[in-house]
Write a structure and sequence with these properties.
This protein is an alpha+beta fold. The chain is built from 19 helices and 10 strands. The protein is globular, with a radius of gyration of 27 Å.
């Protein structure tokens, strides 16, 4: 199979030697020299038909249909949300099943009982009138022992949904979610009639999925121009307008009055792959940051529209996610400003004797204590919690910061954003280093520059601060700044290892270290300049 795929890619065409049936020939005949990723016709191929296909034991096989929607360079395709809406319409023309499972391509079923769990909720007459979807938390295999990149995102995928389950239900996070088809056509009491009766969730398909009429209609609704002058993406289906179509769609559905339920059995219903390199983790989070801001700063902002539609608590819950990227502002300030002041012996944080000092200590211990207790009660480990809070700081001064700038650049018309998939291709050496708990830098990414800068300036300022304390400097005034720098130094240990002690391909690129050092020197001189005046 691998040789066949590589041969087809190299030739740019599927030759007859790989085509064994008339159906395959009919499908691949559409592949011409003009057939590209962004410009190609619709391809729909029935691979399994439950009316005639049986397995080796004679049992009925489920329907299996391959779909590649039409794309044109002149028509927006709306990325994943557009693909899901095409799947929604095509499946309606062929089977119109009332329950829909959305599943990412890197996830697989781990528990055949999961659909039965879902039916228990859907058949409950006390909740079924407003129940829109049942969500299983994302869980992963192949994560290393201490989850160095916090890839589990345990708080996002498992802990917070438990709390939301006591309100209107968890937000939709893209995979492992069972929807009622009806949810995509207006609120529980405000049905929106689709433009074709065959797309209505109440329509009964009475023809074979391979009939000419069904296939012709499927081709029509999969065309790139079909959604023009319709409600698809705005009032029907998965919603357009954000790179995080899952968060936005779940949010809009709950604003319309639908409820959701978290189903969290002991055995994971679905398992998937998590990124094993730091740059992949940061790129994924950067895309999320841009998409979240697209929702948070819009007419559908959770702080305004969300609070009016869902109430204060759910509005604040969605705002908590939507405004994540602005954490880059305080995190960046705390990573650099107190340290620059410390290098010059200037106190800008409360003295130990000031009453407000106790407030700082209380907020620090309270915030970290709450996070730790919640993480441990959610069956996490101390080491995983430590890596989780470390990654929050790394994300804050890298991908959240860059994502915020990209959002601003987009809305100022400076750049256009695209949807990028998170690579899950495994390099064996990277996998080995990941399993050993070693951070993977390796590439010359701009996002590594602020991380390296923060590590360097905190190390230097911590050593200078210790010197000030020993030499009878302003001990009370500088103590908190020294503690802050020391805390960041402890969290930056993997970065120091990548800069100073490693020689493998995952070490910090020398160019990144030089650029970061130069910027730190420039920042220090700029900060010091007003002190000389």
């Amino acid at each position: 199979m691998k040789r066949k795929v590589e041969s087809v890619i190299e030739r740019g065409k599927v030759y007859n030697e790989y085509i064994t049936t008339d159906d395959e020939h009919k499908a691949f005949s559409k592949w011409t020299d003009e057939f590209t990723r962004q410009n190609h016709p619709t391809v729909i191929q029935v691979l399994l038909d439950n009316e005639k296909d049986r397995d080796v034991r004679g049992q009925v096989m489920p329907n299996l249909i391959y779909l590649s929607r039409q794309k044109s360079i002149t028509t927006p395709h709306h990325f994943k949300a557009g693909a899901l809406n095409t799947l929604l319409r095509v499946s309606a023309t062929m089977t119109n099943a009332p329950i829909i499972l959305t599943q990412d391509c890197d996830m697989y079923s781990n528990d055949p009982q999961a659909p039965l769990h879902v039916l228990c909720y859907l058949l409950d007459p006390s909740i079924r009138t407003t129940l829109g979807y049942i969500h299983f938390p994302q869980r992963f295999h192949g994560v290393n022992k201490n989850d160095i990149y916090a890839s589990e995102l345990r708080t996002l995928f498992q802990l917070n949904p438990m709390g939301l389950d006591g309100l209107a239900g968890p937000t939709y996070v893209g995979t492992g979610c069972f929807f009622l088809r009806r949810v995509f056509f207006g609120g529980p009491s405000s049905f929106i009639t689709p433009e074709l009766s065959e797309l209505s969730p109440n329509h009964v398909v009475d023809k074979s999925i391979q009939s000419e009429q069904v296939l012709a209609l499927a081709q029509l609704v999969a065309s790139c121009d079909y959604e023009k002058q319709t409600h698809w993406g705005s009032k029907m289906g998965f919603r357009y307008g954000s790179l995080v179509e899952d968060y936005y769609t779940g949010y809009r559905l709950q604003c319309e009055g639908w409820k959701s339920i978290l189903c969290h059995p002991e055995r994971a219903a679905f398992l998937g792959d998590a990124p094993i390199t730091l740059i992949d983790t940061l790129n994924q989070s950067k895309r999320w940051a841009v998409g979240l801001l697209e929702v948070a700063i819009s007419k559908y902002s959770p702080l305004t529209f969300g609070v009016r539609s869902m109430g204060l608590l759910m509005g604040l819950a969605y705002s908590h996610y939507g405004f994540w990227p602005i954490l880059s502002i305080p995190l960046t300030i705390y990573a650099f400003i107190p340290q620059l002041a410390l290098l010059n012996g200037i106190s800008i944080l409360p003295k130990v004797s000031d009453p407000i000092f106790l407030l700082y200590v209380f907020l620090f211990l309270g915030g970290y204590g709450q996070s730790f207790v919640g993480f441990i009660l959610g069956k996490g480990t101390t080491q995983r919690w430590w890596n989780d809070q470390r990654m929050w700081m790394i994300r804050g001064i890298s991908c959240f910061l860059f994502g915020s700038f990209e959002y601003l650049a987009k809305h100022l018309g400076i750049s256009r954003l695209g949807f990028s998939l998170t690579p899950k291709v495994i390099d064996h050496q990277q996998r080995k280093r990941y399993d050993q708990g070693m951070y993977e830098f390796g590439v010359k990414s701009p996002m590594f520059v602020p991380i390296t800068m923060a590590a360097e300036i905190n190390l230097v300022s911590f050593l200078v601060g210790i010197k000030h304390l020993i030499n009878e400097g302003d001990k009370e005034g500088l103590f908190l700044q020294v503690c802050l720098a020391g805390f960041i130094v402890v969290n930056s240990w993997p970065i120091y290892g990548a800069i100073f002690f490693r020689a493998d391909k995952g070490k910090m690129p020398t160019k990144i270290t030089i650029i970061s050092t130069g910027l730190i020197v420039a920042l220090y001189l700029i900060f010091r300049l007003p002190l000389k005046i």
